[in-house]
Amino acid sequence: MSKHSDSEQKLERVLTQALEGLPLRRAPGTLEARVVNELERRAALPWWRVSFAHWPAAPRVAFVAVCVALVAATILGGVFAFVGDRSFNEAAALVLSWVHPFLAVVSSAGGVATLLVRIIPPLWLYGGMALGIMLYLALFGLGAAAYRTLYLRPSSVGDDL
Amino acid sequence: MRAYQDMVFSTAARLAGNDTQAEDIAQEVFIRAYEHFSDLRTSVTAGGWLKTVTTNLTLNYLNRYRKRWRLFSEMRPASEDSDAEAPEMEWEIPDTILAELGAEQRCAIVDAALRQLPDHQRLPLVLYHFEDLSYQEIAIKLNVSLTKIKTDIRRARAALLPLLQNGGAARDTLDG
After folding, report:
1. Does the CB of A101 have a partner CB in chain B at under 8 Å?
2. Shortest Cα–Cα distance, B107 to chain A (Å)
3. Element (H, E) at B33
4. Considering the domain B5-68 in this protein, what is its CATH number?
5. Best mean pLDDT range from A14-28, A50-64, B89-103
6. Domain ranges within chain A, ordered by starting residue
7. B68, B21 contact by CB (below 8 A)
């Protein structure tokens, strides 16, 4: 076993002896009063100001029922507004009529991208990608530097050990 | 509450390294205990329940502020977490420390020294030495690697030793 490992084991043993059997810290005398005051304050709140889990059963059930009704009304209202007095086939055709232009736009965008790749010299493309990566890394580095400068305590005990 | 308030406060204070935060956490622990009063009143494990809730609430409290920085804090070079790269301790390790002091004096010196450690060293050290958790359990609780836990605890011990020695020496001088 190395001298390094021996010294670590000795340090652990010495600190264990120093730390074991320490008495508890005495809680501040104000703690009990603080807890009682906070409990009284929370108890005095009306039920709608506390979290849903602590609501009385009747309002909870009513709230859930209202929410379900609202969601159902919204969905059904949307469906009826969309379908109206059309037949199912007419409604489906209306939906599909939106899909075709969308696909055409996607296809056109793809065509433009392909054309750009052909027109722009590859060196420019690689340069642009490299620039993007460099900017990303620079931003990441700035974030790390800001963290080390602004957040880490410079004199954290033991960090330099 | 009176039977457990010192235990709850001590656990929170040693983990958080801050008495004001510890008092806030202890207050929240007892409010939660009040909400579970019917279960805890007759439970023989009420003390364990309170200790677990205190530990978890303290870790949550501290986590809230460090989570956003975790990404960067784990960007340190791998060598910093490596056992092989751990520096040699440059001072002589005594056979005992603070042994000549009474429990209250030892407690004051240890708590003052713990407050000077950074969170990432104090938390695993306290969980290991005061809460009797294993390295593996601490790694899971703090959601960091086992290697990092071992390194942080080793560094925390190395940092704590001179603080305790200085604290003990200062106390001896005052007493003398």
Report:
1. no
2. 6
3. helix B19-35
4. 1.10.1740
5. A50-64
6. 121-151
7. no
